[in-house]
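Handoff note, outgoing to incoming analyst
You'll be picking up this chain. Sequence as last confirmed:
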Amino acid sequence: MDYQAIIDKYYPEDDELKQLLLKHSRQVANRCLLICDRHPELHIDREFVEEAAMLHDIGIRWCNAPNIHCHGTEPYIRHGQIGGELLRREGWERHARVSERHTGTGLPGFEPEDLEEKLVCYADKFYSKSRPNRELTVAKAAQSLEKFGHEGVEKFLGWAKLFE
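Most recent structure output, in case you need it:
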């Protein structure tokens, strides 16, 4: 099964939510691929990163975030963990790890570990599903993380040095 088949399985309707998910995921994937191409010395698994970026938000449907067409019952902070559960069920363990580790710069116990996990997490910070036509700068993305604590900002800026 390819990543598009998984998306279609969990988002069978071609509605506003699916279109938003696809747009955001493609933005993140494209940034990841650009970084892969710019930094061959990092030996990032390009194919995996594209798949993982396209699937990182697969769990949003079950969350309560009406401003982005999500009308579920779970708190939005759980979307990565929900996505991880779905992807594990599909046998996509490595992709599940990216989904559950991409929120912020990682949640306690669910922090990005390998380079691919860090890259998807990093690229995700430049795009918001609530403002899908906007791309943040490194400075603005870092500023948006400040509300979660300075440690996450420092982690993000370290990734910026590595990836930019």
